[in-house]
Amino acid sequence: MGLGRKALAGAAMAVLLPGLAGAQATGPRADQLAFRATYKELVEINTTLSVGSCTAAAEAMAKRLKAAGFPDSDLHIIVDPGHPREGNLVAILPGSDPKAKAILLLAHIDVVEANRADWVRDPFTLVEEDGWFYGRGATDDKAQAAIWVDTLIRFRQEGFKPRRTVKMALTCGEESEGYNGAQDLVTNYRALIDAGFALNEGAGGLLGDDGRPVSLSIQSGEKVYQDFTLTTTNPGGHSSRPVPDNAIIHLAGALVRIGAYDFPVQLNETTRAYFTAMAPLVDAESGAAMRALVANPTDAAAAAVLSRNATWNSMLRTTCVATQASAGHAPNALPQRAEANVNCRIFPGQSTESVQARLTELAADPKVIVTADETTRLTPPPPPLSDAIMTPLRAQAERIWPGVPIVPFQSTGATDGKYLNSYGIPTYGLTGIFADSGNSGAHGLNERVRVKSLYDARDFLFGLVKAYASAK
Predict the structure, then answer these.
(1) Which residues contact 80 (CB under 8 A, 6 or more apart)?
(2) Which residues have C-beta within 8 Å of that of residue 171, sequence separation ≥ 6?
(3) 415, 202 in Cβ contact below 8 A?
(4) 340 in Cβ contact with 322 (< 8 Å)
(5) What value does the mean pLDDT take over residues 144-168?
(6) Which residues does 28 contact at the CB level (< 8 Å), separation at least 6?
(7) Which whole-number Å values give the CA distances from 440 to 140, 267, 430, 436, in the listed order?
(8) Measured on CA atoms in the order 108, 113, 117, 120, is the torsion positive or negative?
(9) CATH number for region 3-202+415-470
(10) Which pick of 52, 59, 198, 239 has the fewest CB atoms within 10 Å?
C-alpha cells in the first residue's frame, strides 16, 4: 500500500467505523475490548486432544451468545457419545427470507499440542506483547472462531435482521485423526448446518517487508491429503548368502522411480486466477512464466521456472513424496519385509484411485504392492468464484484496504472445507488476517498474530458477512 493509499485507508475506516481514528491512537475501541475478552477466553481454554476439552470451549461460547440474546432453541451443543470432550457448537441467527439459502461460518476450536516447557510464554494464557497476541490457537483457528462468535453477538446487539439465515459451526477434530466434528455435522446433522456456502480458514493477507498489505487471498479449493503404503515381502534368509530377490532393493527401486516423477501440470479456475493476479507482484522471470503458463498449460519451460518454488510447484500438480520407511528384522538376515509411506497431496477433482494406479505403474515391480491407507480423503472440485462471492468481497476489502488486489488461492494442504465441499456446500477460505512471510508459529512454538491484523480482520469479516446476509 502506498503512502497516499495509507491515508485513504485511514479515511475509509473512519467513515466505516465512526471514531476509529481517535480510538486507535489511544488504544483499542470499546467494541474491540469486548471481542478481546471473547478471544482471550477461547484461547485460554485448553482444547488439545490429549488433555483439553472442545466441549468446554463450545459451552463457553454458547454462554456468551445466550447472554447476547440468543435463545436456547438457536444454540446447539453437539457431542458424540464416544468423544465427550470433542463437542461442537452450532448457533443460528434466523433470516427473514425462508427461501434464501443460509450462510455458514465455520471454524475449528481444537488446537495442536503445546508443551509449556518449550514455549517462551504459557501457551494457554493470551499474552499481548509488542503488537502481537501470543497463545496456542492465537491464529489457528481460534482467531476466526472468536471473530464468528463476536460477529453474531454484534448482529444481535445492533438488531440486525439478515435476509439470509446466518449459521455458525465451531467444530473439533481438525488437528487430529479420529473424530472430526465438521464431518459429523455434514453427515449426521446436515439440515442443521446446511447452507448455500460457507466461510472457513485457509487464506489471509500478505504483508510486505514494510508492513503494508500486498494482497488479500481467498481460498477456493484445496489439495487433499492421502497416504499410500508400499509393501514388499520376501522369505528372507541368511545374509551370508545374498540373492538378487531382496525386499529392500525392490522397495528402493520403486521409491526412486516415484521420486523422479512429476505429475502433469493442471490448472483450474482458482489457480489460473492466482497466477494471473500474482504475475505483476513477483519478479520478472516468475511473472513471465505465470502469464505463459496461464496462456498455455503445456508450456514446459514456464512450468520448470515456477516449479523451483515449492509452493507453486505444489499448486500446479498432484505431488507424492516418500516420508517414512522401515525394513528388515536383523542385521545378519535378508529382509523379509520392506515398507514405506508415500504421502500425496492430490489436485482437486483427481481421484485417489487414479493416483494409486499411477504409483503402481511407477513402482514398475509386481512385488511392490501399493495400497491406499484408511485415511482416504474425499477429492472435491474447487467451489466457483462467482460474482455472488467476489463482488461483496471486493467492495468490503476496498473499504478496509484500498487498492490491495484480491488473489484466489488453492491450498496445498487441507482443511475441514473438504467435507463441506464434498457434500455440496461450497466452502471458501477467507480470514482477512494479514501476516508477513515469516513464521506465525501455527502448529509450532510461540504461535502469534498481529494485534492490528486481528482487529482489522474482525471489522472486515463483520462487514462482509453482513453484506452476504443482506444480498438478494
Answers:
(1) 86, 179, 184
(2) 54, 88, 106, 107, 108, 109, 110, 180, 181, 182, 184, 185, 416
(3) yes
(4) yes
(5) 98
(6) 36, 455
(7) 9, 29, 17, 9
(8) negative
(9) 3.40.630.10
(10) 239
Handedness of CA 279, 417, 415, 375 (dihedral sign): negative
- Three cell numbers written together for 97: 427470507
Q: What is the mean pLDDT of residues 393-417?
A: 93
Residues 6+ apart with CB under 8 A from 23: 29
CATH topology of domain 224-372: Alpha-Beta Plaits (3.30.70)
The pLDDT of residue 289: 98
Q: Residue 309 burial by CB count (10 A; 0-12/13-18/19+): exposed, middle or buried?
A: middle
Confidence of residue 16 (pLDDT cuts 50, 70, 90): very low
Rounded CA separation 438/148 (Å): 26
Per-residue pLDDT at 66: 98
All structural domains of the chain with their residue ranges = 3-202+415-470, 224-372
Distance, in Å, from the CA atom of 16 to the CA atom of 235, rounded to the nearest integer, reads 74
**Eight-class DSSP state of 82:** T
Pick from 34, 38, 46: which is nearest to 62 by CA?
38
CA distance 176 to 49: 7
Sign of CA dihedral 142, 145, 150, 153: negative
What is the distance between the alpha carbons of residues 221 and 110, in angstroms, rounded to a whole number?
22
Q: What is the mean pLDDT of residues 269-297?
A: 95
Q: Evaluate whether 470 touches 166 at the Cβ level (below 8 Å).
A: no
Residues 6+ apart with CB under 8 A from 258: 320, 322, 342, 359, 362, 363
Residue 113: CA count within 13 A, CB half-sphere: 7
Q: What is the pLDDT of residue 11?
A: 32
The position carrying cell 457431542 is 79
For the chain, give the longest Cα–Cα distance: 84
- Position 444 confidence tier, pLDDT thresholds 50, 70, 90: confident
Q: What is the mean pLDDT of the chain?
A: 92
Note the pLDDT tens digit of each residue in 317-357.
Answer: 999 999 999 999 999 999 999 999 999 999 988 889 999 99
Beta bridge partners of 402: none
The pLDDT, as a whole number, for residue 453 is: 97
pLDDT band, residue 13 (cuts 50/70/90): very low
Query: Reduced to 3 states, what is the DSSP secondary structure of residue 199?
Result: strand
Residues 6+ apart with CB under 8 A from 392: 464, 467, 468, 471
